[in-house]
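Colleagues,

For the teaching module next term, I've prepared a clean inverse folding example: a structure given as C-alpha cells, and then the sequence designed for it. I'd like students to try predicting residues themselves before seeing the answer, so please don't circulate the second half yet.
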C-alpha cells in the first residue's frame, strides 16, 4: 500500500518522477542519518524514562551538537485509516506498468513515473 499511495498521491497527482532507495535488511548501520541523528538523540536523553509523548518530544527537540545539528520534531495527530488493501492482481499490474526496478539492488531501489507528466 505504501508504494501504491506514493505513486498515486505524489507521482500521479503532482506529476513527479520519484526514485526510492531503501537500505537492505541488516545494512542500516551504513545509514548516515541513523549515525548522525539517532545517536545524538539517544545521548541527549541518556536513559531517562520516557513517560509521555511530551517528554519524548522535548528530548528530541533539544538535541543539538557543536557542529550545528539541530533537530525539529512534531507529533502528528492525524488518524490514518487502517486495513486499506490493494488486491494481489491490482498490485501485480501496478508493479508491471509503473514500477521500474533499478539495476543495482532491484528489490530495494525503484522508480515511478507519472503516466502523463504535468506541464
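(Answer key — instructors only)
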Amino acid at each position: 500500500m505504501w508504494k501504491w499511495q506514493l505513486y498515486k498521491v505524489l507521482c500521479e497527482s503532482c506529476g513527479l518522477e520519484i526514485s526510492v532507495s531503501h537500505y537492505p535488511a541488516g545494512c542500516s548501520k551504513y545509514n548516515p542519518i541513523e549515525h548522525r541523528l539517532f545517536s545524538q538523540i539517544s545521548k541527549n536523553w541518556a536513559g531517562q524514562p520516557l513517560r509521555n509523548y511530551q517528554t519524548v518530544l522535548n528530548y528530541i527537540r533539544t538535541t543539538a551538537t557543536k557542529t550545528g545539528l539541530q533537530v525539529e520534531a512534531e507529533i502528528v495527530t492525524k488518524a490514518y485509516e487502517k486495513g486499506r488493501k490493494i488486491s494481489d492482481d491490482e498490485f501485480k499490474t501496478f508493479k508491471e506498468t509503473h514500477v521500474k526496478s533499478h539495476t543495482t539492488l532491484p528489490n530495494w531501489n525503484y522508480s515511478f513515473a507519472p503516466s502523463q507528466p504535468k506541464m
